[in-house]
Amino acid sequence: MDAMSETTSLSSGDVRMEGDNSALMDEFGAHPSTYRPFLEELCEKTKFSKSEIRFLYRGFKQECPGGIVQEDTFKEIYAKFFPYGNSSMYAHLVFKAFDITSVGAITFKDMILTLSTLLRGSSREKLRWIFSRLYDLNGNGFITKRELFDIVSAVHDLVGVSKQQAQAEDRKTRDHVDKIFSKFDVNRDGIVTIEEFLESCLKDELIMKSLQVFSTTL
Ligand SMILES: [Ca+2]
Ligand SMILES: [Ca+2]
């Protein structure tokens, strides 16, 4: 989705949603004493206003009446967008990135905390999210070449290649990963830290540009 049009549609939703608390009621029980603090908490922890949160929640409940998103749903959506490739690995990685509490399901809170970073965050915040939620697969604080390879392969799989192409494609992926990795690994010690990642990305015009459309490709 596009950040600009999102903002526009959100603000047009403000008027309609003003004063409607019912949408948030069922997330944490029907009593106002439980949903009001929940709404306040989300408002505090994100860059969205209360009326935007209510608006987003209404949309969320429409798409996911059960209140949570399962990994299968994620995979189905990605399969529709990338019908010629194998999107299941990438869908799995993005799902993991959204599933903040690692419970195997994405709640409204997970969703909105992530969207807040991706749509309204600064470049630094977005990069931190990409580093820690998407690239650092085992969550140990740094990226190895293997982790980068897994991510890049998953992205390449989205498009899909024939069996004959697969070997050449694998070679190309490795070359690509070598190139990116050596750019990120500033001190050449074989791991990429968040500091190195930020330093490399922030001075790369192409990466900075793609960050602006990041939420569209995710
Ligand atoms: Ca790691
Ligand atoms: Ca390093």
Automatic annotation (TrEMBL):
SUPFAM superfamilies: EF-hand. One of its GO terms (molecular function) is calcium ion binding. The keyword Transport does not apply. Gene3D superfamilies: EF-hand. This is Kv channel-interacting protein 1. Keywords: Calcium, Metal-binding, Repeat. SMART domains: EFh. Residues 122-158, 172-207 form the EF-hand domain. It holds the Pfam family EF-hand_7. The keyword Signal does not apply. Signal peptide: none annotated.
